[in-house]
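## retry 2 of 3
previous attempt timed out at serialization; input unchanged, resubmitting
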Amino acid sequence: MLRPKAQSIRAQAKQLFQEYCSNSSVHGVRYLSSRERAGCEKFWWLLVFIVSIGSCALLIQKTYRKWDQTPVIVSFDEKPTRVWQIPLPAVTVCPQTKTRFTWFNFSREHAESIDDIPDRNLTDNFLAMMQVCERIFYHLFFTNYILPNKTGSESYAALIENMSVPMYHIIDFCYFRGKFTRCTNLFQKAITEEGICFTFNGLSAKQLLRTEAILAEDLLMSDTSNSLDWTLDQGYPPHSNLSSYPYRTAVSGYSSGLAMNLVSNDSYYNHLCGGPIQGLKVLLHSPADYPQVSNKFIRVPINQEVTIAVKPQVITTSEVLRNYAPERRQCFFNHERYLKFFRVYTQDNCELECLTNFTLQYCGCVRFSMPRSSRTEVCESNMIECMILAENELFERDVVEHRKGEKNYRAGCNCLPSCTSVQYDAEITQTDFQWVSWMQALKVKVNESKGVHLSRLGIYYKEAQFIASKRSELFGLTDFLANCGGLLGLCMGVSLLSLVELVYFCSVRPLTQRRKLQEMAPSKGKEISAIGFDSISTGND
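## retry succeeded, writing output
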């Protein structure tokens, strides 16, 4: 038996439910409390109502997953972009010639020591050259030997720089934006895994690197005084002109680009260390990227003319996405991702820092060309194989551990793309360069017996404008709410007012009824008391 109070609450709840069903705008609810409906009809409508709620909940869950996981779409921009709105590509030129014979004859020392490596004291210059030689050369001759440590205090970077061929012996006759220009004014020195290379239109050391965090004695890049008028996220400011740095050009075509003669000399070339192919390696990259030449490059052979027609690939990000977390939009703005060694965040810079940290963990040291602090050891030549294994291991772990569903080291580096990225696709043509005949036509005496070879490289924009890509909001909060409303309306006929009705009958309406009952209780008590008094009076009479 229920107590009177419980019976009263139950009766009130039943009355409230019947009132809600009779007045609600939600489809099908009114049939649940209708006295004209049989029990089987009410059960059928209850079953339909539950199926509608379940279907709606499932569809809303899928909509939420789409809003949470894939809120961004990459599409073509609405308007074309002119080439003067972005910088020309940075061009890094790396000679296959690693040393000057007047400083060091690598082939001769190798020939003298190859049969007696364990017992021979190899010079520091030889050990330094081992750091930049082709990997196949190391695997052919030195995998079974333990090379000694260098004995001098001079760093590997300094030794390689001292032996390298000067830039004016490699790059000559520069033609930029319709004018002849001194090549030394256009190129800066950079230390890469290929040795000493020369970069055009790249950011200087102070602009790209955190020089305060990097070992000062081996500056990886020249500290040129070019002022910076461009940033990766914001581009060029409105007040900038064509003389701003990094350089840009107003139009497309060969005459508005960069052209240069590249010199190779047989007396400098070393087939053991440089490999069987003579010439130079060229890398096109963003001015904000530190050059990494060994894995992606364009080869310029000797006595050939190579022309590169560039098509920019630019991805920007709409301002709306700045409020999203980087993991949702799948990119970083420069201020959102701190790099220990780089001031400018790009995916390539982050990958290089990741490889540096992994090499340090794997080998206890880093390659001479990697950014490092004063407390970080530089790997000796006997650690070359370890450095190669570390690079391979990093990428193999990425594949294996991703397949197993484990969090791998490379994923922990969190090297998402930058929200504004600039890449340069290249269309390459190559032909014989009849430079001897050309020199003779210019009345310049040429002595072919000296073993000098010329190549020509030209880089220019293929078209004056291009279509950039843009990250935009695919599924925002407004879209999510609109889809939820559409699903609720489709399945149950629910609108915003229907939800307000539900809240009203769950909160306001019960409180109102309770207050009325409380107000009615004293008046009923007075009536009962008055009736009792009258009864007593009548009895006395």
